[in-house]
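User: We ran a pulldown and think these components assemble together. Before we commit to crystallization trials, I'd like a predicted model of the whole complex to look at. Sequences follow.
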Amino acid sequence: MGKNWWKILGVLLVSYSIVGGFLIPVPELPILNETIRNTYFHIPMWFAMMALLSYSLFHSIKFLSGFDLQYDTKADQSVQVALVLGVFGLLTGMVWAQFTWGSFWTNDVKLNGTAISMLTYLAYIILRGSIEDENRKAKVAAVYNIFAWVMMILFIMIIPRMNDSLHPGNGGNPAFGSYDMDSTMRIVFYPAVIGWILIGAWITNIKIRIKNIDDIQKYA
Amino acid sequence: MHKKISFFLTTLLVLLVNALSAQGVDMATGMRSEGKIYVVVVVVLIIFIGLAIYLFSLDKKLDKLEKNNPK
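Assistant: Here's a predicted model for the assembly, 291 residues in total across the polymer chains.
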């Protein structure tokens, strides 16, 4: 157990959010109806993605101050897991949008911004694949990662707030204000976010360790 | 160890389902109440906890690999 406590905590928090997310009463709003419960599952995907991308940025900066390749591995693997979570976020969002906004893809600023920032990170992976030398690859990727993170914050957090968007929290209205979420929703929503961040971190941890063993065998 | 845990979990689940469903002919009890939403909750939970157990077993396998491939 000991060092695995945070993995168990992640499983427990997400399990709690599944039970609570289905059973605890939610505000009765027109159009949204029961789909408001998607808040507990769709939005944590994005929070976990952004947490992992920030974790990746942190390790890219750490790599640039010392050029230790183990930090590059951490940055690379967390971007990969973050993109998987982002794809889940997009797919769940598309289903939700179809039944509330009437279309799988609307020209919402937040949707397009998210798509652009995911493409920015896809370019990060392609960029890595195009450079042979491990040290050069790591250096170029780390610098690019800083750029990509800033673009992600711009496109997901800032530009949607300056324009009209269908998403809550954009075009002026507060995302987590009393209008969109009441206090009973918070007791499920925040544990769900923390739980999914922990699950994302766990999968990243497994991927980093696989890569490390792979490297040991490659250079042995 | 693993077998013991899965045996324990299976027993628990069987007992739980029995307790929730075998309450006479009353249709609106336990797993059958609230439009059977509890059934959906249990299904989703089984999938999620199953995935978590799978992740744990991958984690254990990696522990072994790491022991065999010291840095």
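Chain B touches chain A at residues 34, 37-38, 40-41, 44-45, 48-49, 52, 55-56, 58-59, 62, 65-66, 69, 71 (CB under 8 Å). That may be worth checking against your pulldown data before setting up trials.

User: Thanks, that helps.
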